[in-house]
Known about the structure:
By secondary structure, this protein is of the alpha/beta class. It folds into 3 domains: about 5-115, Response regulator (Rossmann fold), CATH 3.40.50; about 135-310, Rossmann fold; about 315-450, Helicase, Ruva Protein, domain 3. It has helices spanning about 15-20, 35-40, 60-65, 80-90, 105-115, 115-125, 130-135, 145-160, 175-185, 205-210, 230, 245-260, 285-290, 295-300, 320-335, 345-350, 355-370, 385-395, 400-415, 420-430, 435-440, and strands at about 5, 25-30, 45-50, 75, 95-100, 130, 165-170, 195, 210-215, 225, 235-240, 260, 270, 275-280, 305-310. The strands form 4 sheets. It has a 6-stranded mixed sheet with strand order 6-8-11-14-7-15. A 5-stranded parallel sheet has the order 2-1-3-4-5, sandwiched between helices. Strand 12 (about 260) and strand 13 form a beta hairpin.
Amino acid sequence: MSRILIIDNDTSASFLTRLRDELDQEIVTADTLALATRKIRSHAFDLVIADDSPPDHVGRRLLADPSLPALPIVLLTSCGSIRDAVHAIRRGATEYVVKPFDDETLIAVIRKVTDPWAATAHDEPPCDVGDAARAGVGARFIGESAKAKRVRMLIDRVAETRVNVLVLGESGTGKELVARAIHARSSFRRHPLVKVNCPSIPAQLFESSLFGHIKGSFTSAHESHKGKFELAGQGNILLDEVSEIPLDLQAKLLRVLEDRRCYPVGGTTEVSIHARVMAASNRNLAQMVKEGQFRRDLYYRLNVFPIHLAPLRERKEDIPAITFHLLRRLSQLLGIRINGISENGMRALFTYDWPGNVRELRNILERAAVLASGKTLDIEHFPAELQQCAARFAEASDFRGQVDAFKRMLLVDTLRSTGWRKKTAAERLGLTQRAFSHYVARFDLDSEREI
Length: 451
């Protein structure tokens, strides 16, 4: 059963009853934007249907609120046009329905949006060529911190251009999500988004995979094959973990990016490249350039518009919004009711360092949802390391203890961000080596290295 929030005073009681009975949906209503916002923040919904008619424009105000979790939102309006529909979809609306409409129209939209199998396709396309329908839904960078807002601003600025984008961040921070969001907001979103997992391509098949090959060009080439760049057409291509491309192959990629054309393996007719190139990496490419592990000219070619994603430990104020968004998605995908998260459970999420970032948060919430079996998620449903971290904070009940707990968390975060290089961590915190060694011993920080 899906949970749907409806904010529309024109919706009849008979239609609400039909939704409950015929579609087996849980229907929640709200009369005002303020009430709707409170409900969204305190409960997990699968769909929001909101009136966007003037003068209140409730629907677009919901879409513009960065503090809310990303939800499929269907806008209803009494004065729609094609231009209005286009603007609504670009702002993030899932569907746009013009009043008056018959019940069957809206029911068809609800069935489409709340289908769990469709949601699965949106989360993780089964192939590496995605269109706008798959790439757009849910492709929103969640959070209300300054860092999250800046990422969304950069996404909006670069989406309409054709410049190359380089997305950098630790594993699990949402690099692919950013690429999908850029694609979904671009004017060429109807064209493919092609993802290339660079580490998975054998060196001997690199050119064939990216640029294609002609039948008979090598032993196993039984058919001609289009490369990823050609498949992307006028859309976008994402080179994921671009740092893992061997040096000798980087030169071939650079040549294609500069010339905007390539030859398939064994071919004599060149293929023009029109796709915008996005690259992602969890490594420090600038440092790799200094160490001779990555070509300087390729780095400059890719790094036209960089977007840096902060680790979750540096934007913990975003944890509630991300958590509610993930719980809603997990409820759909797992087919189980998730009744939110307790105050103690949410507090525990704030005490943890999240070395695996949002990906780790999702995995922990998924495990907790299964263990909770329809109950409210609580700290008892979380892994031992998270419970232990929360317990240490709970023990720090006095002022001095709270200060020590904060110092310990800051020291561990800095050590992890520097690869556990103590000298670098001490310099970053402005501490002498002697003082830093004192804190390492006092807080038993070496024990955290295994977590």
